[in-house]
Specification:
With 601 residues, the protein is α/β, with parallel strands linked by helices. 34% of the residues lie in helices and 16% in strands. The relative contact order is 0.15. The structure holds adenosine-5'-triphosphate. The site of adenosine-5'-triphosphate has 22 residues, from helix 3. It comes from Salix viminalis.
């Protein structure tokens, strides 16, 4: 066992979810579906797959539980990062016992026990194997995001569970009547675990067509580290990116070491803010250097360069020979794209959502489509990208990951935000040997269209004297632990695609996030130590304007596109499909008739 793993084993027991392992496992053993609601950072994503693995799920030695533990995430970066983390914590090989699959990329060994994937990948698997025979349990993480993929998947899985149960009962009868069945033909019930920090549980338990018996809900109420929230006194309605810039700079100048994660709405804003911060950092360094006598000039601020990916030693995930069958499929562009999907247009805008199975043909958001085609295609599909991904995974290694850069339990905050709460003396706490004025910024972008290799660079180790600033869209909102992030700056906005049924048009709009999203964003701090979340809007805006939850995506897309997907999955009576939030039955029937008339179904 690596030293880092030994260190982590000691820390692991402090995760709130560890105390609830028995309760969670008992519920999973007794019920076909279980809902786990837990605060951000309590350990759902990384620990529940391990509980299952340790209980024999995914084990070749178990007859009943030998199917793979499947874990879905809404986004690629979360799939890659959590697979790496779980492999590390369990001391297993990434790409072998712990596999992953996202669009274009698949690393799974024959002896795979846990597979991380995007929800779109699993949706596609159901299309080809309705019983999902290779899985013993499916975990749908971040189920609150309620993308169309997740909603259709939940509906499908509720049926798969019933089908598997029926098959299992039939087989038991056959066995009791003296027939013999070979082990490989045996079918066992499938388990489903829905997880989120902020689940709209009612949608799942009240919809009787979905789960006949409402699934039990297990709450994990606490988080490990405190995150202090600071609201702005005033809400900037136009230049919120400018406000974000000011806030980052004032944190950098006045507060102690610790990474900063900033949320804006799209690729264009990410790139603009990155450039501005990069420039400011260089100026700051130049000014500081002028004032120094005989001191070393600090390193320059760094902007991520996709070409500049560091080629290091081989990560164990990539030791598999290139001749192996899985590897041949690695990089296949079309294997996870269903027939109904024309192209890769789902990466052509950046609101943070990514899907492998595309429900609606997205339009390119002109504003936000500056990344070159090569960057998009090159996500991992090109020759050099395999090596780059190896290198990127290395950056997730424990040495980089487990150690929190912030020291101590209490970190001062910016006084202007809530003076009454600032019980710390800025003078005493903010300027150390490597005072904030002297350190450089390592500015990293993070958005859905960015190639996976570049996305993973946010996990790179930060050099001594540097401060990490990640400028992200809501792609960084859930599941991610970026080690050392102490400060979150939340503009409170996101870019979403809205559908107008009266004219049949779709348009991207910047709008307020939900309270649930704001909590997720806050939860990106306080993961490896205590943190602060600066909301660039007032508490009145938070309380009175932000909705509790974002609207389920299914209610915002054209019904015909949903029907098309269901038809591609051979669902006959679309109006009977168990959606968590069903579209109007009449609209479904109308769309079905229309498609039949067009000869599309
Ligand atoms: N890469 C990492 N490096 C260091 N610590 C990590 C890493 N990943 C996870 N952790 C630790 O494990 C904790 C639990 O992470 P996990 O992702 O399982 O939480 P979660 O409950 O799923 O959170 P969320 O709801 O935000 O996804 C983190 O708060 C952090 O302390």
């Amino acid at each position: 066992m690596y030293q880092g793993q030994v260190r982590w084993r000691r820390k692991r027991k402090d995760l709130p979810i560890i105390m609830m392992e028995q309760e969670i496992m008992e519920a999973i053993n007794e019920q076909s579906t279980v809902i786990i609601c837990g605060e951000t950072g309590c350990g759902k994503t990384t620990q529940v797959p391990q509980f299952l693995y340790e209980a024999g799920f995914g084990s070749k030695h178990s007859v009943v539980r030998n199917g793979v533990i499947g874990v879905t995430q809404p986004r690629r970066v979360a799939v890659l990062a959590t697979a790496r983390r779980v492999a590390f914590e369990l001391g297993l090989h990434l790409g072998k016992e712990v596999g992953f699959q996202v669009r274009h990329d698949k690393r799974i060994g024959d002896d795979c026990s846990i597979k991380f994937m995007t929800d779109g990948i699993l949706l596609r698997e159901v299309q080809t194997d309705i019983l999902l025979k290779r899985y013993s349990v499916i975990i749908l993480d971040e189920a609150h995001e309620r993308s169309v993929n997740t909603d259709i998947l939940i509906g499908m899985l509720s049926r798969v569970i019933r089908l598997r149960q029926n098959k299992y009962e039939q087989q038991q009868k056959m066995v009791l009547s003296g027939q013999t069945l070979s082990p490989e033909n045996m079918i066992f019930p499938l388990k489903l675990v829905l997880m989120s920090a902020t689940l709209r549980v009612e949608d799942f338990i009240s919809e009787r067509r979905l789960f006949h018996d409402p699934p039990p809900v297990i709450n994990v109420p606490t988080r490990q580290f405190e995150v202090k929230v600071h609201f702005s006194k005033r809400t900037e309605t136009v230049d919120y990116v400018g406000q974000a810039y000011k806030k980052v700079m004032s944190i950098h100048k006045r507060l102690p070491q610790g990474g900063i994660l900033v949320f804006v709405t799209g690729q264009r804003e990410v790139e603009y803010l990155c450039q501005k911060l990069h420039k400011a950092s260089m100026e700051l360094i130049a000014n500081t250097a002028k004032g120094r006598v005989g001191n070393e000039v600090p390193v320059m601020s760094e902007m991520v360069s996709i070409e500049g990916v560091n080629m290091k030693d081989i990560n164990e995930a990539f030791e598999t020979q290139l001749t192996d069958q899985q590897t041949e499929r690695f990089g296949s562009h079309d294997e996870d794209v269903p027939d109904s999907v024309e192209d890769e247009s789902d990466v052509s805008y950046d609101s943070g959502s990514e899907s492998e199975v595309e429900i609606v043909g997205d339009e390119v958001d002109i504003e936000d489509s500056k990344t070159s085609e090569n960057d998009v295609v090159g996500v991992l599909g090109e020759k050099s990208s395999l090596a780059s991904l190896k290198s990127a995974f290395e950056a997730l290694a424990e040495e980089n990951a487990s150690e929190c850069k912030s020291k101590g339990n209490q970190i001062p905050s910016l006084p202007e935000d809530c003076p009454e709460q600032s019980k710390y003396s800025m003078e005493k706490k903010t300027v150390g040997d490597k005072g904030p004025f002297t350190s450089s910024l390592r500015v990293m972008p993070l958005y859905a269209m960015l190639p996976a290799v570049a996305q993973l660079r946010v996990f790179d180790e930060v050099k001594e004297g540097e401060r990490l600033v990640v400028v992200a869209t809501n792609v960084a909102e859930t599941s991610l632990t970026i080690p050392g992030i102490t400060y979150v700056v939340d503009t409170g906005r996101e870019k979403v695609k809205n559908y107008n049924p009266s004219n049949g048009m779709e348009a991207y709009e910047v709008q307020w996030i939900s309270k649930a999203s704001a909590d997720q964003r806050k939860g990106r701090a306080g993961r490896t130590g205590p943190g602060h979340c600066y909301r660039l809007y007032s508490s009145a805006v938070y309380n009175n304007i932000l909705p509790d939850f974002s609207c389920a995506e299914i209610s915002k897309v054209p019904v015909d596109s949903i029907v098309l997907v269901l038809k591609s999955m051979h669902i006959d009576k679309v109006e009977k499909f168990p959606f968590p939030t069903p579209p109007e039955a009449a609209a479904l029937v109308e769309a079905e008739t229309l498609l039949e008339d067009l000869g599309s179904s």
